[in-house]
Amino acid sequence: MTTSEHEKKEKDRQQAENRLQAGFNAYNDGKLDQAAEAFGDAEIRFRLSGDFKQAGDCRAMIADIQEQNNALEQAVNSYQRALKHYQEADRPLLMASSALSMGHVERRLAHLDRAQDAYQNAQQIYRKQQNSKGLGNVELAMGHIELQRANMSYATEHYQDAIRYFKEANETTNEADASRSLADIQRLRRQFGEAEAAYKRALEIYQQTGDNYGLVDAQVGLGRIYIDQERLDEATAVLAEALSRAGLIEYELGQADANLGLAEINLIQSQVDQALIAAQSALQMYSDQHNALGTASAGRILGEINLRRGQLSYANSIMERSLRTFQAVAYRLGQAETTVGLGLIQYRRGFLSRARKTLEDGLKQAHALDNLQVASRALLGLAYTNKQQGELSRAKSILSDAHDQAEKVDSAIGIPAIAAIEIAQARLDILSGDMKEADHHLEEAEAAANNNFLVGQMLPEILAVRGQLRLAEGDFNAAEALYSSAHNQAEGLQQPEIAVEALLGQAQARLSRGELDAALETFYAVGRQYQVLENTDGDGLAVLGVAQVHIGQQHWDEALEDCEAAMVRFKQADDQTNEADVLLTRGLTYRSREEMDSALNDFEQALRHYHHQRRPLGVADTRFARGSIFLLRKDFERARDEQGKAIIQVERVMNSIKSPERWGTFLRQYAEQYAETAMTDLRQHNDSQALTLLQNFARIAGSQELKAHLQAYEEAIPVGGEELSGEDIQNNTDLVKRLALLRRSL
Questions:
Q1: 338 vs 324: CA distance, rounded Å
Q2: 3-state secondary structure 411-459
Q3: Backbone angles phi, psi at 341, to 5 degrees
């Protein structure tokens, strides 16, 4: 090489060094575009001068800048170029470092197979170089991939190997990182003792080495253990400390993680407004940092919060977005939770077919991940979906499976799950007319509520369902008192869905007592609240209640309009259970308008629904209504057949009531129907049968209501007038005498 050539090469190298330094200066000043330009210029000059090591350093810095700018595909290409430069320079450790960094970027892109290939490439080099620290970094990264794939056993093995390599290399900080990752697995497996010990060991190491970022991450992990264990005060304290520390060191992702944990605690404690603020703050931070996994996790929690608040459209939107993100980054653990959450939102919105498919998908994912907590939630959602679609037997079977499953898990999951299942079973038993079982299930839920914070949050719902039970049993005053208490507690705990359900129950109790104006006003208020909550099905219940009030007020046209409006809402929500109630109510309206064929048609459809759903009181009400029409048409045999079948259903339910003292209260609801049945017997000259029927009733429920109805029949039967024939007058006079005799015999 001539002197001039040597001088030119040295000059080019000096210019490359100057451009490299300019790149570092711009980088340190945060001027990333200028830095990238300078590093690119320096790379070319170093490569032309034959300094491939320095060229690789420049390209690696460009890759780092591209990664910070979220230009991930470009970063992968840059790391590949850096690796080639290092290969030319025969720098195997730098090659391995580039391959490792490239794997990290591929993992962020959810290219898990490519990431694994890059890590294995680095692993081969580190093994040849016998570099324990590098091997530890590879094992740690491989563990993250397997965790992302939800392969817990493989992830555990990688983390354990990473800890071993870091110990060999005397890399205590890296060892702490690996221990913390292993603790994450142990926490997910609910091995809380081991996980807590690992997090605390990591905390000690971070404190000794002054690693504040590691301290924040370990504190967040420790806080999540305490949340899972329902040690909420400890969780709040450690997460608040993590949030404060992260703020001091300007660690945005640490702040976001701590805020998200605090949001979960606030939601559990029914501090919904605080939960919303914390989750929104976390979401903003994750978004600013382009952290897809964090953004998806925060979105899932926000979806749950807005589901609780009744903001269903927004909850659905953000949950769908989170699910897409989890799918894009191939994070299976988040997918299962989010899928089930989305299914529950779809159920509440009345999209039952879609909800069923989503919940079944979430259940499969939860079983594949052995996540019994998510599986229990999915089963509960499927049970409610089947209940609304009128598949009560299927719903009971699902709840039975869910109960068996919940008994196999630890109490932190199992007790709240079992309590929710007990409440759901009580709802089904009330519809099925098994009052004793409903009472038993509510007692079980109440017992759990006294000893478990999470179940304590269910007390408003327990009170509301007990109000439903008392309403079915005919104790309208007790029902309203329970509903009122449920409403007040639900509002205090920011549970709007339960609060409006309890208000609906109060309206139904007032209607049952004949307080029509008060009931009407309350049903209107219920409808307005359900509309705010975007609950089509609930709005239908409110409209159905208004229709029933209008029947009581003898406003037949308005009642028919309300029935049609309620039917539209129930069809939108695929609510076949309440469709049956609309058909019965509309049939009663037609009967009052003396449109008997239309009434019988509706009664026939309602009866099919009630039989399919196995709802004995619905069957009884419908058969009594059909019997009254046949009685008016003087088809006494068919009338008595319908009435007899109805009475069998009523008395079967009565016998299922736990306390015999409440039998009379329940039976008094049917005094008019029993009196009408006795009238049918009299029409057929079965006077002794009528007397036996009413005496049996009076022995349980008293005779006051029966006598009033019989008296009304006596006064309504004409015994004179030009429109009657002599035979009619004689028959009616005889019937009135026999009615009076029957009444006095009670």
A1: 10
A2: HHHHHHHHHHHHHHHHHHHHHHCCHHHHHHHHHHHHHHHCCCHHHHCCH
A3: -60, -40
pLDDT higher than threshold 90 for residue 373: no
Give the whole-number percent of the chain exceeding pLDDT 90: 68
In sequence order, which residues have a C-beta less than 8 Å from that of residue 351 and are 6 or more positions away?
none
- Distance in angstroms (rounded) separating the CA atoms of residues 513 and 529: 23
Nearest of 181, 238, 250, 171 to residue 205 by alpha carbon: 171
Instruction: List pLDDT tens digits, range 270-312.
Output: 899 999 999 999 999 999 888 888 999 999 999 999 999 989 9
Residues 6 or more apart whose CB falls under 8 angstroms from that of 489 comprise: 459, 460, 463
Contact 334/362 with Cβ under 8 angstroms? Answer: no
Give me the amino acid identity at 664.
G
| 413 and 436 Cβ atoms separated by less than 8 Å | no
Beta-carbon count within 10 A of 233 CB: 9
Length of the chain: 746
Give me the pLDDT at residue 329, please.
Answer: 78
At 503, which helix (H) or strand (E)? helix 496-512
Residue 675, pLDDT score: 96
Give the C-alpha separation, 606 to 390, whole Å. Answer: 12
Q: Is the pLDDT of residue 1 over 60?
A: no
Q: Which long-range contacts (CB under 8 A, 24 or more apart) does 634-642 make?
A: 634/683, 636/680, 636/683, 636/684, 637/684, 639/680, 640/677, 640/680, 640/681, 640/684
DSSP per-residue string spanning 453-494: HHHHTTHHHHHHHHHHHHHHTT-HHHHHHHHHHHHHHHHHTT
User: Which tokens hold the place of 548?
Assistant: 């029933």
Residue identified by tokens 């269910």 is 458
pLDDT over threshold 90, residue 406: no
DSSP string for residues in 331-361: -HHHHHHHHHHHHHHHHHHT-HHHHHHHHHH
Name the strand (E) or helix (H) holding 130: none
Cβ atoms 152, 188 nearer than 8 A: yes
| Spatial distance between the Cα atoms of 693 and 339, rounded to a whole number of angstroms | 56
Instruction: Please write the tens of the pLDDT for every residue from 489-508.
Output: 999 999 999 999 999 999 99
Q: What is the predicted pLDDT for the residue at 27?
A: 86
Residue 152, CA atoms < 13 Å, CB-side half-sphere? 14
pLDDT at position 456 is 83
Torsion from C-alpha of 589, 595, 598, 604, nearest 10 degrees? 70
Residue 16 contacts by C-beta under 8 Å, 6 or more apart in sequence? 42, 45, 46, 49, 51, 54
Q: What sections of 109-211 are H helices per DSSP? A: 112-129, 132-148, 152-168, 172-188, 192-209
CA distance 271 to 494: 7
| CA dist., res. 54 & res. 57, Å (int) | 5
- Report pLDDT digits (tens) over 518-567: 999 999 999 999 999 999 999 999 999 999 999 999 999 999 999 999 99
C-alpha torsion sign, points 71, 76, 77, 79: positive
